[in-house]
Amino acid sequence: QSWLDPRLNLLRFGINETLMLSGETLTARLWKPDLFFVNAKDAAIHSITAPNELVKIDPDGTVLYGVRVRLKLSCRMDFRLFPLDKQRCPMIIRPYAQKTGQTRISWARQNPLTLEFEIQMEEFDLIEFHTGAYEEKRQLGDFSCLNATFVLYRRIHYHLIQSYFPTCLAVFISWVAFYITIHLPQIRFALGVVTLFTVLSIASSIRATMPRVTYVKVIDVWITACIIFIFAELAETTLVNYLIRMRLRPAVMRRVDFGIANLIHQIRYGYPTDDFLLKMDTSSKLELHRNVKRAEAIDRASRYLFPLCFAFFNLVYWLYYSAKEYEVEYHNA
């Protein structure tokens, strides 16, 4: 901080050099603006090995006061685009009791805010920051305020590895069911259920690390889409299993349920060695043969349709949300 105090004009006393003050006793007697950080949740002044304060008085009465402070600032974040979001976190400074008529503060004209070293954060990159000044009207009067806004861009690499890749892999694994023969529905159902619970488990771990919000996030759209694709695979398996038994008489249907693998093999390759097949009428054999062909055709179509739909969803998802910028302005209560 720097201000002009005419009472400290050293030229009146014949002093034409800058004075440096140290010690709490001397610095405490100086007039200082009663500034505070509006959105600070926690703050501390460094005092190892001595209070980290600097007071310099120029001959014309200009006072330079510096102190090393550690701050934890609150930031209202919007997670609609999580984890592709960009956050704007402010730092607001204003006098506590000194009104505009008593104290008016402003940023330095040159280099109002400088970073002595690059800020390293685990999940964000600081891409830019800018400063501003305004007057705040309150019930007690008008106050001069300063603000600095830090624009943070979230690093997506962690979420690609921990969220997107595992769920995408689970969807791919669910498609293996289309290559499993239709006479093993138990294995196909088990594969779909396992991948579904895998995606739900990943979604639960993501929610555990996120604040509770009422709106839909970008990651929620992705998780929901993965669940829909896996559920669609389970629905396809159910449809195939139903088509094999469609339009068959109850006696034939029970036999199909009991030995579907043997029946399909014999119908397909023309070796009706099973006693039940030898007694089966021609219409039932033809109907079972048509049902098997329909089910296999759906499986073959699903092998191409599901990946194409998922690829189209990825194209729309990444193009739309990568281009969309959602910024939340901070409103002081």
TrEMBL record:
One of its GO terms (cellular component) is plasma membrane. Belongs to the ligand-gated ion channel (TC 1.A.9) family. It is a multi-pass membrane protein. The chain crosses the membrane at residues 164-182, 189-210, 222-244, 304-321. Residues 164-245 form the Neurotransmitter-gated ion-channel transmembrane domain. This is Putative glutamate-gated chloride channel. InterPro entries: GABAA/Glycine_rcpt (IPR006028), Neur_chan_lig-bd (IPR006202), Neur_chan_lig-bd_sf (IPR036734), Neur_channel (IPR006201), Neuro-gated_channel_TM_sf (IPR036719), Neuro_actylchol_rec (IPR038050), Neurotrans-gated_channel_TM (IPR006029), Neurotransmitter_ion_chnl_CS (IPR018000). CDD domains: LGIC_TM_anion. Residues 1-134 form the Neurotransmitter-gated ion-channel ligand-binding domain. It is found in: Cell membrane; Membrane. It comes from Ixodes scapularis (Black-legged tick). Keywords: Cell membrane, Ion channel, Ion transport, Membrane, Signal, Transmembrane, Transmembrane helix, Transport. The keyword Transport applies. One of its GO terms (molecular function) is transmembrane signaling receptor activity. Pfam families: Neur_chan_LBD, Neur_chan_memb. Its main location: membrane. The keyword rRNA processing does not apply.
